[in-house]
Amino acid sequence: MSQAVHPDVADSLALAIIASSAAPALLLDGALNIIAGSTSFYRAFLLQPQNVAGRPIFAVGKGEWDMPQLRSLLTATLDGHARIDSYEMELKGDAAPRRLVLNAQKLHYGDADQARLLLTISDVTEARISEKLKDDLLREKAILLRELQHRVANSLQIIASVLLQSARNVQSDEARNHLHDAHNRVMSIATLQQQLAASRLGDVELKGYFTQLCQSLGASMIHNHDQISLVVDADGSSVSADISVSLGLIVTELVINALKHAFPGERPGKILVDYHADKADWVLSVSDDGVGTSQSFADAKPGLGSSIVEALANQLDASVTIEEGSPGITVVINHTHSRDPKAEPVERPNVV
């Protein structure tokens, strides 16, 4: 059986808590009158103890504490029906509004007539202002970055058009081929920029991205779509924007290579871009049913495309292998999360 604490002893203990509080704090009686306040409370709210002690909390200052919701919460806490835990409110006075976080706890002395309420107050005004400024800056940065992505994509398309026009005007077949290659690469990067802008800076859904990328490549390089088809088979995986950049460039190089070498002499065929993931592991492959490695790669020398694919695969910590089909070839980019980074490097495909 609990024993009632003598009122004088109880108040002495509560006053000791208030006196030692580094945070603004008030001790209230059963009528919500202020018994005492901490020094930090008077300092924070520019009040004098003699003007506060014995008065209802709702009469403090110029009445800015007299808010119906606060009154209800304090009363319910005294009655034992509620407890104020991190209640945030706005205190409006003569100066700028302040954001406060309140915590209130009823002190139990074993005597209902000696109810006391300990109210602690934290001023989070500066923290909320900082949070708002940070959020505003992030939103502004996101808007500016999306605008930059749109501008870059538009500029790349203009450059691609200039390259294509130049390719029509040059006399050298070798120069024309180089300009066409440059045009295709610029168009793929422009497509990537558009996809990143559409993703709103979040993760990029690969099936849609690869489809759009291949449509762009097919539109610029396939003259007869009834003869050569470019198909994407991907699961619903999404990756971060930086990883999508690397994967998109790999697909671009491998598709360009297949379109250039796999179907000589107007040979019909199909190119398949396939991507599937299992948690952290994934496999990207580009395959064709063309003439195969022995003809399309026999005399090829390592070039820009080969260097790009190799560098991007290393960046993604992935292996690159080439598999001969019947007919055609498949280039496989394989990332295994548990792959030993010290293992012997696999043979890289000779992509040009």
TrEMBL record:
Q: Matching Pfam families, A to Z?
A: HATPase_c, HisKA_2
Q: Could you list this entry's UniProt keywords, alphabetically sorted.
A: ATP-binding, Kinase, Nucleotide-binding, Phosphoprotein, Transferase
Q: What is this protein called?
A: histidine kinase
Record-listed E.C. numbers: 2.7.13.3
Q: What class of enzyme is it?
A: transferase
Residue limits of the Histidine kinase/HSP90-like ATPase domain? 242-337
InterPro entries in UniProt: HATPase_C_sf, HATPase_dom, Sig_transdc_His_kin_sub2_dim/P
Q: Which GO terms describe its molecular function?
A: ATP binding; protein histidine kinase activity
* Catalytic activity, as annotated: ATP + protein L-histidine = ADP + protein N-phospho-L-histidine
| Lineage of producing organism | Bacteria, Pseudomonadati, Pseudomonadota, Alphaproteobacteria, Sphingomonadales
Name the domain of life this protein comes from.
Bacteria
